[in-house]
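Hi all, long-time lurker, first post. I run a small reading group and we've been trying to get comfortable going from sequence to structure in the token notation. Rather than ask abstract questions, I figured I'd post a concrete chain and ask someone more experienced to write out its structure so we can walk through it together at our next meeting. Sequence below, copied exactly:
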Amino acid sequence: MISGKATIAATKSYAQLHQTECPQKHFREINSLIMSSIGIGTYLGTSDATTDNLVTEAIIKSVESGINLIDTAINYRSQHGEMSVKAALVHLIESQTVSRAELIICSKGGFIPNREREKWFKQEYVDNSKFNVQMTDMVAGIHCMHPEYIQDQLERSLINLGVETIDIYYLHNPETQLGIIPPDEFYRRLKAVFAVLEKAADAGKITAYGIATWQGFRVPPTDAKHIDLAKAKSIAQEVAGGKSDRFQFIQLPVNLTMPEAFITPTQPVDGKILPAITAANQLGINAIASASIAQAKNLMQLPQNIIHYLGENLKTDAVRALQFTRSVPGLSSALVGMKSPNHVAENLALTSIPPLDAEDFAQLGVRE
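-- Answer (accepted) --
Happy to help. Here is the structure in token form:
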């Protein structure tokens, strides 16, 4: 078990260590931590030893090159994602490349992490007298928000990762349940999950928590999959009971082909409808981008004006797409999944280039 958690002093030291090759703007102060503007994701790939090794090596190389945000989930590659992170952490710490306190480790729970979902869920939770979980708590055959399930999934993630504390723990795509269960029941379940996560934070098992979504924050309030961020924040405040709540992060897709998070008003806050990232910032919540290069899909030849303002020195559309996303105003960091050595080298070249400032980003002219 690797003890400790990310700290302001250690993450600041990490940024200072990389100040020669990484410009100052590559790092940002988020929640009293210094976070790299690019994070490594661990989503794609098959559940085999070859992929495990590629992911582990990609994490090691990323941390050596100025990336200290590592994102995974218990269901990524049927728990192999978290195990690959553990292997990387063990190498990095034992080799004294970094300390645990320099790294911001994130994971997620909610999806069923086994290929034989129904059989596994029934065996592990429904038929186990330790839990008061029913088959009806599994929604759409893939997702569960029962508080005992989330608690157990968190404990499994801590073991898979080999860490004492996960810095950011997300409820994973809870909108999977919307449209199947009524909104009132959804927010009741969300409150029960937040209660579990507040207790986990009190116990030092996590530092902060959030909601990772695909549709939930980007679609309009009229959409069945819409999650009201302000309402979720008020639920967290209620659960915290007068203390500062630890609901401090959201994760959502942001890329050149999916700009809704920063241009489309979807979130009601104080009588206004705001884009999700703007709403999050107003509510004191940090936004992390997933699918920053659209998982390498839909990356067609970019218009010349986009290439010009992103920087003529960027050599590929994938790197331009990542530069675009990490430069979105109000965004804390942009996650990019990578495992092939060529892609790792290509993406890591961006750590030596500063993100665009808000004025230059506005020149890109991205509209609905």
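A couple of things your group might point at:
The chain has a mean pLDDT of 95.
The chain has one domain: 8-364.
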